[in-house]
Automatic annotation (TrEMBL):
Pathways involved: Amino-acid biosynthesis; L-phenylalanine biosynthesis; phenylpyruvate from prephenate: step 1/1
EC number: 4.2.1.51
Extent of the signal sequence: none
SUPFAM superfamilies assigned: ACT-like, Periplasmic binding protein-like II
Polar residues bias spans: 128-143
Alphabetical list of Gene3D superfamilies matching this protein: 3.30.70.260, Periplasmic binding protein-like II
Broad EC category: lyase
CDD domains, per the entry: ACT_CM-PDT, PBP2_PDT_like
GO biological process: L-phenylalanine biosynthetic process
Pfam families: PDT
The organism's place on the tree of life at top rank: Eukaryota
Domain Prephenate dehydratase positions: 20-242
Species assigned in the record: Lachnellula subtilissima
Protein known as: prephenate dehydratase
Length: 344
């Protein structure tokens, strides 16, 4: 906290810029909602990073944080139904050391309920029914399909293309297979961008998988609500910052850390030796992911998340494990430590 000026003196005028939070946008995306849950709106400027291709939104977030244009970045990391977000892992792999100062400093969990948004078609009472929309199953090849949790609110026969973020497809597969099987699927940078595209489509033949907030913002009809496969569908987001806050107070909450590393794939048991370092120091592993190194075919960069913090390590277990890991890897990088929000 800054010291107060002495009585009788004039407080110096200091121009302090409002910190920027960059997120995978546009406004109304799930990442935007996660950012709002972490950062008080009145104290931050929100910068949606949104481009046409599916991966560039995340890229813009990483670039903004690394350059210092954004104080924090928020990116999706994994979904409880559909697993890891590949685009985020690709950027964390950082094969060319483009983002050397980026660290994960926090996480957020968001309940995700997907809506099918679009424009209702003029209703033909004789032929249209929500239960026989689109190219629906059962079919000869799928005589006993899984039953979706919800039904369309109106006919979907006029829909011939669907837009959304790639991560959403796997979260809504049962509904899509039942009511929109075979319909063209188009990947976009975010669910909110998908809603924008549907709003711009004057033909009315496209739909978006997005949030209820996106429907309100873009004035779209809700064609179906709650189309995710599981009622407990959640997405975990990482909060990024440049560098490390060395002044961060020790936390009494459970903590997690993330590292990446490569091993010599020609050495039998190389990966097992690395993982055994965490067992030796009684550190619980919470997730393991991998991405190709792009140097040698079928060799990988591994990501290991584990319980414990490099920044708050009174018994030295994390330090010991990482020192041990360094003996068995070709290269490794610490990607951050943060409070475990899931344990609360």
């Amino acid at each position: 906290m800054a010291s107060q000026p002495e009585l009788g003196t004039k407080e110096p005028e200091i121009a302090t810029a409002t910190p920027v939070v960059s997120f995978l946008g546009p406004v109304s995306s799930y990442t935007h909602q996660a950012a709002l849950s972490c950062f008080e709106a009145a104290k931050y400027i929100y910068n949606p990073a949104a481009t046409i291709t599916a991966d560039c939104g995340n890229l813009d977030v990483f670039e903004g944080v690394q350059s210092g244009e954004a104080a924090f970045g928020v990116v999706p990391f994994e979904n409880s139904t559909n697993g890891a977000v590949i685009f985020t892992l690709e950027l964390l792999a950082d094969r060319h050391n483009t983002y050397p100062d980026i660290n994960v400093c926090g996480e957020a969990y968001l309940d995700v309920s997907h809506y099918l948004l679009g424009h209702k078609a003029p209703r033909n009472a004789l032929t249209d029914s929500p239960d026989v929309s689109g190219n629906c199953t059962p079919t000869t090849s799928i005589p006993s399909p899984l039953k979706p949790r919800t039904k369309p609110l109106s006919s979907l026969k006029h829909i011939d293309r669907i837009y959304t973020h790639p991560q959403a497809w796997g979260q809504c597969e049962t509904f899509l297979s039942a009511y929109l099987k075979g319909i063209e699927r188009i990947d976009l940078s975010s669910t909110s961008r998908a809603a924008e595209m549907v709003k711009e489509d004057t033909s009315g033949r496209s739909a978006a998988i997005a949030s209820s907030l996106a429907a309100e913002i873009h004035g779209l009809d809700v064609l179906a609500r709650g189309i995710e496969d599981r009622e407990d569908n959640k997405t975990r987001f990482f909060i990024l910052r440049k560098g490390v806050d060395e002044k961060a107070n020790a936390s009494t909450a459970k903590t997690k850390s993330l590292i990446s590393f490569t091993v010599d794939h020609r050495s039998p048991g190389a990966l097992a030796q690395v993982l055994d370092c965490f067992r030796a120091y009684t550190l619980n592993l919470t997730s393991i992911n991998s991405r190709p190194t792009n140097d040698v075919p079928f060799q990988y960069i591994f990501f290991v998340e584990f319980e414990g913090s490099k920044l708050d390590d009174p018994d030295g277990r994390v330090e010991g494990a990482l020192e041990s890991v360094a003996k068995f890897v070709q290269s490794w990088r610490w990607l951050g430590s943060w409070d475990d929000k899931l344990s609360r």
